[in-house]
Amino acid sequence: MDEVRVALVSMGGYAYNFYGRRLLQPPKDRGMRFVGGVSRSPENVKKEYVEAGIPVYRSLEEFYENDWADLVISSGPIHLHEPVTCEALSHGSSVLSEKPVSATIQEVLRMAEAEERSGKFVAIGYQWSFSDSVQALKRDAMEGLFGDPIRLKTLILWPRTLSYYGRNDWAGRVKIGGRWVLDSPVQNATAHYLHNMFYILGDTRERSARPGEVESELYRANDIENYDAAALRCVTEEETEVMFYSAHCVPENRGIVMRYEFEGAVVEYNAHGDGCFTACFRDGRTKCYGNPEDTSENKLWDSVRAVRTDEPVACGIGASIPHVLAVNGAQESAEIRAFPKEMVRRSQFDGGTLVWAEGLAEALQESYQRGVLPSEAGRYPWAVKGSRVDLRGYSHFPSTCS
User: Fold this and answer.
1) Are strands 229-236 and 255-262 parallel, antiparallel or unpaired?
2) pLDDT-derived band at 402, boundaries 50, 70, 90
3) What is the extent of the structural domain holding 258?
């Protein structure tokens, strides 16, 4: 194959900043050609596409009426991941779809069936999974260098202003146009980091550990349909505890903190430090795995290479299913509770208005340090734990529907 023909679905925002820039000026040794884009408003695409002479179509169907691609990059809204992926596969294109793989497990299963029928591949754009850092860390975990896993936990406090929820018509929504979105910190902005814990625990390069059960606490301070703060406890099918704490309604950015506890080592990550994964072994040795952000482009170039070589991608649909299961189960576990009015504050942050819950950041930090849900800390009257949801054999969200 002389050149891998690549098309881009969704052309603004993140799609332009990450994919568009790289597709417009690819390194010569990548062997790819940017053949077209899809945008609901072709007349409003960035001038860089126009200047490069990239044809822009209003739909993927229109693109295929005029052209074809070996690889379609799907970087649009969550609720469109499934239809875009399935349509591209039906035309014989492989797909690199942005995270999460889709909103619900039934959609993901349909995508997997379409992938199998097509004989092509679907890569999911969790860039950490493709990074040199995480791949090295996962290899050592699989080879038993750290011993058996005990507990993995992650805390992310990322403020998002009102403009974040007003940037499109699906932000913070549960459904739009009859399709599930389930947009939340866990589903969207911080999805990478919940997925990463399952991915590290997977027993092969292309697999992640599956959650066997989940219980959650879901809260909101903003006037949105879904939640903007969450705490989750997942237990994998292999009985490893995975704790996840994530919130947008906090007054300051405290970044990402991770602690992966194994019998023989503790692996830590702190975005405000050097941004690297470091393993500290029980005998005093340390091993640094580097910063996963340093090779964030791998997901694109590995997908281009996979078209040419037929080698499996590091993170496909199968590896991404555990995150969807956890999100769906968490949504069923707990009723979304509004923070008491006396906790809710407004302030200016990063040029916009931020709605946040006083004391939430400290509550999540304490819960993270202790490895408990906020309701279990015994200090927060607003905290209420949801029910335990069994995810073994879970195949439809909500599970009350057939």
Assistant:
1) unpaired
2) low
3) 129-294+311-375
